[in-house]
Design brief:
This protein is an alpha+beta fold and 436 residues long. The chain has 16 helices and 16 strands.
């Protein structure tokens, strides 16, 4: 593995100051109560009220989003203006599929480390339930020919060419979750990993059950005070992640049918991340900004990494992104107090755990002399993950970093590593440290 420079180690220190997120709301087959811009606005509003500076003192606003609505072009700018950040504060949107929120944080950290910014609002948002239904290209061509027809006879000929099948919609969400290069949807890539690493259906379901159990415990024990309740325009109130299934059992999970490789596959709706709406934000600051405004600090961003992998096995991206960070910083698994690996699929996380500790994989795929020590699953996703609380693709990267920083603060721990797999065959990771 080639050694790479870590600009976060050589540049100015970057601090995570504070953050909030919305509850993650499960899609229920119809558009949810919030558009993406509304979620992002509500998540940030109270966060900014609680800061000792005004919103127009941000140097930049950066927001990750994969599928903004038709009225949300450069959604970061829309939300920044609604928040009162002012016309002079630049705002830009980033898109790196499932890690868009992490990309926003990384971009903010690099801006601060380089000296171009002192105070940045960064995060991610997605309203997956609002993914559009599209006309097919065939329908678009028919409509174009009809509109170009001149005269009654030409219009009639064009109209007679219409077929009801042209009205069959294209589901943008399904298209977006399918890799066009290799022709596999994300669930099928998880099936590939389940086969490669011999992960059993029972093992996957057990992982999914633990995710729900851990989220239930986190709610009961008050470990999710990062959540900002949101209100819809009809007076509805949403205060908690609603994808949690407290009554889930291994027996119930075992009854679910395979979704992506019928009838013999292992990936089901129960051991996959939920389609969800949500937003998460963090305030990042330089040391100068921390001192100038008297800010509290959640943690410090120490390192980050992006990696590319075979799109057919995109779920292994976290391994390839985390490994260079560990190598650069002279760390082994036992040096990390808490881990967040986004739960796109139970099989995907379990494949990462297997590859991480496999000597052959680390030598052949990562170029390492030896494998890492196994990751302690008692320190991994300790309060649940995408399987239980959902995976709004643009927001998850920001959520896992926010929650990891809060976990380090709550427990007094030193180091945490957050990572995600990324559709298209990539991985992203960020190392953070607790700060006294």
């Amino acid at each position: 593995m080639a050694e790479r420079v870590n600009p976060l180690a050589t540049g100015r220190p970057v601090y995570l100051v504070d953050g909030r997120r919305t509850p993650f709301l499960r899609a229920r087959g119809v558009p949810g109560p919030f558009h993406a811009a509304d979620l992002a606005f509500q998540a940030a509003r109270t966060l900014l009220y609680q800061q000792p500076f005004t919103p127009d003192q941000f140097d930049q606003v950066i927001l990750g989003c994969v599928m903004p609505g038709a009225d949300e072009a450069n959604i970061a700018r829309i939300v920044a203006l609604r928040l009162g950040c002012g016309e002079k504060t630049p705002a830009w949107t980033v898109q790196r599929n499932c890690a868009s929120g992490l990309q926003a944080l990384d971009s903010a950290a690099q801006e601060i480390a380089s000296g171009r910014s002192d105070l940045v609002l960064a995060g991610g948002v997605e309203a997956m339930s609002h993914a559009p239904l599209l006309f097919s290209e065939a329908m678009a061509r028919w409509l174009g020919r009809f509109n170009q027809s001149r005269g009654a006879a030409a219009k009639l000929r064009s109209a007679l060419a219409f077929r009801p099948t042209l009205l069959q919609p294209v589901v943008a969400l399904l298209r977006g979750l399918t890799d066009p290069v290799v022709g596999l949807n994300m669930g099928q890539t998880a099936e590939v990993l389940a086969h490669r690493f011999a992960i059993s259906r029972e093992h996957m379901d057990g992982f999914a059950l633990r995710s729900h159990q851990r989220l239930a415990a986190a709610q009961d024990e008050g470990h999710l005070d990062e959540i900002e309740p949101v209100y819809d325009f009809n007076g509805g109130h949403y205060a908690a992640d609603d994808g949690l299934r407290r009554d889930t059992t291994m027996e119930k999970l075992a009854r679910l049918k395979p979704v992506f490789d019928k009838p013999f596959g292992k990936i089901t709706a129960g051991n996959s991340a939920q389609i969800t709406d949500g937003a998460a934000w963090l305030v990042l600051a330089s040391e100068n900004a921390v001192e100038r405004h008297g800010l509290g600090v959640l943690g410090r961003v120490r390192d980050s990494q992006w990696a590319g992998v075979d799109p057919r096995q995109m779920g292994l991206g976290p391994v390839h992104a985390m490994a260079p960070i560990m190598t650069r910083n002279g760390l082994d698994s036992t040096d990390i107090n808490y881990w967040e690996i986004n739960e796109a699929f139970a099989a995907q996380v379990q494949a990462c755990l297997s590859a991480w500790a496999d000597a052959d994989y680390c030598r052949q795929e990562l170029g390492l002399a030896q494998a890492f020590a196994p990751i302690d699953e008692q320190r991994l996703n300790i309060d649940g993950g995408g399987i239980s609380l959902g995976h709004p693709v643009g927001a998850s990267g920001a959520r896992i970093v926010l929650h990891l920083a809060n976990t380090l603060k709550r427990t007094g721990a030193r180091r945490g590593l957050a990572s995600l797999c990324i559709g298209g065959g990539q991985g992203g990771a960020m190392l953070i440290e607790g700060v006294d």
